UniProtKB/TrEMBL annotation:
Known catalytic reactions: L-aspartate + acetyl-CoA = N-acetyl-L-aspartate + CoA + H(+)
Protein name from the UniProt record: N-acetylaspartate synthetase
Recorded topology in the membrane: Single-pass membrane protein
Organism: Oryzias javanicus
Residues passing through the membrane, by range: 55-75
Amino acid sequence: MDNQKLDNGFHKESILVREFTADDRPDVLEIFSEGLMEMVADTAFRGLRHHPESVLLYTAATALCFVVTMCWWVIALLPATVMCLRYFYSRCVIGAYLREAMNSDMGDIEGYYMSTPGSCLWVAVLKDKVVGVVAAAGQSGGALELRRMCVDRGYRRCGVGIALGQTVLKFAAARGYSSVVLGTTAYAPAAHQLYHGLGFRRVRRTNGYATPGATQSLLERIFYRVHHHYYTIDLQSRKNISSGDC
């Protein structure tokens, strides 16, 4: 596959996107692991604003505690306790998801992506350093799934995500896929802005998504809730629009 270069206005360097090699493994796993664990705080704290049903539940529990105990110090401690429990269960679920990923595709990148027709994993390189990763896997129905996109924290908002995403779209178009799809539980606006910037549109959102690795215990369901956003891009329509512009 041809290497792709993208002019980087921030670093005044070229981002090189190329296929994964065995020497990239330590960097790829580190970027993926750190990126995934960053979602713990995102889910526990930023995510709460997106779940009014959880806020209502916590508010009702606080009021009930006040009625039962009539102790102000209990009421004062309860919000901090709730946030600690949200962080704890977010870390448990996301940690379990990470272990599951490491025991499946991310533990056998060559087998899952590099030797499977219609699938691939790429790395973004800047100044001889691996700074990002993305994978693609063929799905039934003529769709290609964009997976595992992560960018090193020190190189975000520098065009790395765009370069990786464009690589997947070109790969899909070259191999005749009709669409590219992806799913995310991220609450950070930057992630959704990236997908929209690449041309994806959100087709639905699932509330109370069961993250792989979750135990679905009562306490986990109370303190860990996420939305799952489904995005797609129709490559055929995009091709027709591009042809019309010419």
